[in-house]
């Protein structure tokens, strides 16, 4: 009787541990996606126009050499 009780306890413990750790992969994926999105959006955002050239800056309308925009996943 004691062996059966011990066996049931071990099996229940293993089942509980499996259930707990099986969702960990999904949590890591969600956290990873949130971090990528945060890094892609940048801190300040907006458009930076640099230099003098033949490209029109969308923020000011001036002619500039380079336009820098933050990357966005949306």
List the helices and strands and how they pair.
Elements: H1 2-22, H2 24-41, E1 48-56, E2 63-68
Antiparallel strand pairs: 1-2
Query: What's the overall geometry?
Result: rod-shaped
Strand order within the widest beta sheet = 1-2
Residue share in helix: 40-55%
Q: Order of SSEs, N→C?
A: HHEE
Let me know the number of strands.
2
What is the rounded Rg?
A: 27 Å
Largest sheet: 2 strands, antiparallel
Helix segment count?
A: 2
Spatial gap, N to C terminus: 61 Å
Overall mean pLDDT score? 78
Stretches where pLDDT is under 50 for at least 5 consecutive residues are none
- Give the percentage of residues in beta strands: 15-25%
Overall SS class:
alpha+beta
Question: Describe it for me?
Answer:
- The chain is an alpha+beta fold and 74 residues long.
- 53% of the residues lie in helices and 20% in strands.
- It has 2 helices and 2 strands, in the order ααββ.
- It has a two-stranded antiparallel sheet.
- The chain is rod-shaped and about 85 Å long.
- The model has no long low-confidence stretch (mean pLDDT 78).
């Amino acid at each position: 009787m004691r062996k059966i009780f011990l066996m049931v306890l071990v099996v229940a413990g293993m089942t509980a541990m499996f259930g707990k750790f099986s969702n960990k992969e999904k949590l890591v994926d969600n956290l990873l996606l949130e971090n990528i999105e945060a890094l892609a959006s940048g801190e300040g955002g907006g458009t930076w126009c640099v230099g003098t050239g033949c490209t029109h800056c969308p923020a000011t309308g001036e002619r500039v050499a380079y336009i820098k925009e933050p990357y966005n996943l949306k």
